[in-house]
Amino acid sequence: MTPPDRDVLFREFGDELAKAQTPEALNDLRVSWVGRKGRLTTLLRELGTISLEERKTVGPLLNALKNQIDETLADREKALTRAVREKALETDRFDITLPGRRPATGRLHPLNQVMDSLVSIFRSLGFVVADGPEMESEFHNFEALNVPADHPARDMQDTFYLQTGPQQLALPHVERGASNETVLLRTHTSPVQVRIMQQYPPPLAIIVPGRVYRHEAQDATHAAVFHQMEGLLVDKDLSFSDLKGTLARFAQLFFGPDTKTRFRPSFFPFTEPSAEMDVYFERPGRAPGWIEIMGSGMVHPNVLRSVGIDAEQYSGFAFGMGIERLAMIKHGVDDLRLFQENDVRFLRQF
Asked: Whole-angstrom Cα distance, residue 249 to residue 234?
């Protein structure tokens, strides 16, 4: 192998380098000289075919030339990149004084905002959040809550039953023990109260926010799927005055410190005595008056007995409210369906 003239090779490389005025042309030049089949790479591979003495002379020469070419290519690449950037700045005329574009930010759905507010208020009053399954048994949804078999809510036309008869869904959290336990979509969040009282001894103070299902015709104030928040407190020596004081304080924290409340006698199978709670509103353009916001009452002794709690030693109170209803009252929304339509123009108001 005739030793190549390093200076001659580098001058040839330099002549080709002078013609490479773009990053693409520079990359082609790199491939043609030091790529896998490049001119210099081929010479380096041929070192294995010459004698040891020749290799000692030619090898260092070619390696030095390769290093020199690599450094030259790197310097030229930096120079071309800088030139391209400077040209872009001149032609694009980027105005650095323009204000930045703020990224779009999301927000919680108004129902989630109301639910979070309720949770925060009742946590400040000493309650903890509990949760449970949306597919329930008749025992947890009705029987344990003192709802008799002939109650209208147990009718197929009022409740979404998932399966009845001898072959049932295999849901461990639903079964009470019988193989033919009827499964349904819970009609209220009260079954979670039953589950908590079965698992933990008193005293208990829980709130249960969640989704519930009823066979309702969809209109401005009704929906088949909506949200509720239940509350339960079980302890010794509780009275109706404890219930009234707790809920009156909630109303002041949620609607404002001057909020007026009243309680009207009502009936619920799982509480006795029972009451509806009203709030007095005065709004511009509307006639002032009382609006019902929730049902409440002292836990019925039969409910305590159904979960193994001594009704002679313990008492409790419970309450339940619709999240959509509270959101409509708080924000002056007239149609419940607006919360479900996902209209961004509506949601952006909250």
From this structure: 19
- Going from N- to C-terminal start, the domains of the chain cover 6-92, 110-132+196-347
CA distance 171 to 285: 52
Of 219, 221, 220, 162, residue with least CA distance to 186: 162
Torsion region of 278: left, alpha or beta (phi above 0 gives left; psi -120 to 50 gives alpha): beta
Residue 167 and residue 105: Cα distance in Å, rounded? Answer: 49
Q: Tell me how far apart the alpha carbons of residues 327 and 310 are, in angstroms, rounded to a whole number.
A: 38
CATH node for 110-132+196-347: 3.30.930.10
Identify which of 231, 161, 247, 234 has the alpha carbon closest to the alpha carbon of residue 189. Answer: 231
Task: Judge whether residue 147 has pLDDT over 80.
Answer: yes
Give the model confidence (pLDDT) of 103-144 as tens digits: 888 889 999 999 999 999 999 999 999 999 999 988 899 989
Q: What is the pTM of this model?
A: 0.66
Contact 186, 171 (CB under 8 A): no
Q: Determine the average pLDDT of the residues in 80-102.
A: 79
Contact residues for 303 (Cβ-Cβ < 8 A; gap 6+): 144, 145, 146, 194, 270
Residue 275 DSSP one-character state: E
Query: HSE (CB half, 13 Å, CA atoms) of 126?
Result: 9
Which two tokens mark 208?
A: 């249960």
Cβ partners under 8 Å of residue 46, min gap 6: 1
Q: How many CA atoms lie within 13 A of 60 on its CB side?
A: 5
